[in-house]
Amino acid sequence: MQRHRIQKALGALLLLPWLSGCLVHTRSVQQAKMPTGVKSATADELVQSINSHCQDIQSLSATVEFTATEGGAKKGKIKTFTSFGGYILLRKPEALRVIGLLPVVHTRAFDMATNGDDFKLWLPHYNKVIEGPNTVTKESPNALENFRPNVFSDSLLIHCIGPDELVTLTSDTENVPDPKTKELIVKPEYDLTVEKRKENSQELIAERVIHFDRLTLEPYQVDIYDSKGAIQTEAIYGPQQTFGKIQFPGTITIKRPLEELEILTTFQKVTTNLELKDSQFELQVPSGVTVQELH
Q1: Tell me, what DSSP letter sits at residue 18?
Q2: pLDDT in tens, 164-213
Q3: Exposure pattern of 271-286 as b/e (b: 16+ CB <10 Å)?
Q4: Which domains are delineated in the chain?
Q5: Residue ranges of the alpha helices (H) in the chain?
Q6: Residue 31, Ramachandran bin (φ over 0: left; ψ between -120 and 50: alpha; else beta)
Q7: Of the candidates 14, 78, 52, 56, which has an alpha carbon nearest to the alpha carbon of residue 217?
Q8: Which residues, other chains included, contact 278 with Cβ-Cβ below 8 Å and sequence gap of 6+?
Q9: Angle at 135 between CA 69 and CA 221, to 5 degrees
């Protein structure tokens, strides 16, 4: 019986060369090309690079254009809002002012200010002011209410990596079309995972992952995680541009995957390390407006 099975298997193998011509179809696929000039770095070198850039900018003033998009697979539709201009003021450690202007008339669509702990958001069109802590303590079904100042400040400038944080470095590749030739090329990258130990515990939790382009060793994306291990915010940095004497991304796209919210910020003018006063981060609540408290 065993011998019979062996003979049948050998017979099937002998038939494969003839059967393959009838049962197998071969087609060509585009091969991805490996780019030249791929650079290498250690985790310590990438940490040093991040911290050096982090310390270079202590304050920032920018003229920008915002484009907001809401929706996706969960909502079943995508809605893109009309682009509008605005201004951003940032002073470390956590002072931030973001002003949006209505198209054409250029009056204020919104005005958000924070000193680092609490924030105020004035919506003149609704005669309303929203107040609350910078970070969300209770999720709101309204995605815009979860878009607090820390989302902007965490995305605009990559924070320094502290001595109490642990890092691991991995490498990865992705096949992407060349923007000029449209040919498929290999995009090599480094992923620097920044972790921290839970308080009174040895357990490590991922705080963020910084993605580096290995052709430039510059960061092009940061994924920021929530306490449950889900990606809360993605900050995607466009190509560097020259603003005066500094290099800064021409665009920063802030994505909130869980809420299906995205804001593209296009930078038109950027000035760094100028003196900004406390009063520039204070928003006086107009009299007679409705005040909504957030948690």
Answers
A1: H
A2: 999 999 999 888 887 777 788 888 999 999 999 887 777 888 999 999 99
A3: ebeeebeeeebebeee
A4: 43-293 (2.50.20.10)
A5: 2-23, 43-56, 149-156
A6: beta
A7: 52
A8: 95, 115
A9: 50
